[in-house]
């Protein structure tokens, strides 16, 4: 993945954000004014066996949560067939289908179900990159890794950064951290990239197909805080900028494998298991072979995330190594002349 950068001033200019003022000395004078968020979409069940988002979405739909102050709320169960089957996906991973290239690929009867569904979702909450797209998408996910609440976004997304900062200041029951994808929007394959702004919540640990109340409570609190933040933003509150720590993925690590059969020959080492985000130094144990031998980390010191994530066995990923970086970002406030 690409090197980590500070807030992308070029993108901000292209999007009509204020140009003046230092981005490193953030004061209210440097406030970036952005249009109000009038359309907000909450998506769940993008992966059909991640139960928290599915049940939280059904709960919101049952209680007809469709508006909060000035913002209209759309709730979307993203992958109904996978939800019915309680599987991550039917034909292919839906949350890898939202690049511009795939969304422009003509659909036929033989197209994978998830690609067809991606086109339907692009019509509901997009089209991606257009003026008609919803202002903000929040996509709800679970991980089997011990990651607490993670907000996953590209840190060039000022809205996502500020919402992350707000949620982190409010939620105390679990660690709240940010994973910084750094992907250009056109190549970003996830559903939340279809909105003008977007992010995912990833809450765990929770096994696939299982619903835990503690994880549900964290997800619900994070969604409620997001709605609260949007209402405050739209009503004219200025949110101060500053600095945020994010984790930028730089490398994937596969399990040791038998070169002939490709079967894995080791499991995550007990000293690494459940220690997501804890710095991993050269020489630290990462795998334990089935013969009882320890495999040690050989690269530079980084932070492991998604350790032993169930869904990543098929992606040949035992864990992802991330670099901790500091992102500096300006204050934001609503553009006054836009109305809501
Ligand atoms: Zn997921």
From TrEMBL:
This is N-acyl-aromatic-L-amino acid amidohydrolase. It is a peripheral membrane protein. Residues 245-324 form the AstE/AspA barrel-sandwich hybrid domain. It comes from Solea senegalensis. Coiled coil: none annotated. Residues 38-224 form the Succinylglutamate desuccinylase/Aspartoacylase catalytic domain. The keyword Hydrolase applies. It holds the Pfam family AstE_AspA_hybrid.
């Amino acid at each position: 993945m690409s090197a980590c950068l500070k807030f992308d001033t070029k993108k901000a200019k292209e999007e009509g954000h204020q140009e003046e003022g230092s981005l490193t000395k953030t004061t209210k004078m440097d406030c970036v004014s952005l249009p109000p968020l009038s359309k907000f979409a909450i998506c769940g069940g993008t992966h059909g066996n991640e139960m928290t988002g599915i049940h939280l979405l059904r709960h919101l739909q049952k209680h007809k949560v469709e508006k909060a102050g000035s913002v209209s709320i759309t709730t979307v169960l993203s992958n109904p067939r996978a939800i019915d089957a309680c599987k991550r996906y039917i034909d292919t991973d839906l949350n890898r289908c939202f690049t511009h290239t795939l969304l422009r690929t003509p659909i036929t009867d033989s197209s994978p179900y998830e690609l067809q569904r991606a086109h339907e979702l692009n019509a509901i909450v997009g089209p991606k990159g257009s003026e008609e797209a919803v202002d903000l998408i929040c996509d709800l996910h679970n991980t089997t890794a011990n990651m607490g609440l993670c907000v996953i976004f590209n840190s060039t997304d000022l809205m996502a950064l500020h919402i992350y900062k707000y949620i982190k200041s409010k939620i105390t029951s679990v660690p709240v951290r940010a994973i910084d994808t750094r992907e250009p929007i056109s190549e970003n394959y996830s559903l939340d990239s279809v909105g003008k702004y977007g992010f995912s919540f990833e809450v765990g640990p929770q096994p696939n197909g299982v619903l835990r109340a503690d994880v549900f409570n964290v997800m619900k609190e994070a969604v409620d805080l997001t709605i609260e933040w949007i209402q405050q933003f739209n009503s004219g509150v200025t949110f101060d900028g500053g600095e945020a720590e994010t984790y930028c993925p730089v490398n994937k690590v596969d399990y040791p494998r038998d070169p002939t059969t490709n079967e894995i020959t080791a499991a995550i080492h007990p000293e690494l298991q459940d220690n997501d985000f804890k710095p991993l130094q050269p020489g630290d144990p990462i795998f334990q072979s089935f013969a009882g031998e320890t495999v040690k980390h050989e690269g530079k010191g980084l932070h492991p995330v998604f350790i032993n994530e169930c869904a990543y066995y098929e992606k040949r990923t035992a864990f992802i190594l991330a670099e901790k970086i500091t992102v500096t970002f300006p204050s934001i406030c609503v553009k006054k002349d836009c109305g809501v």
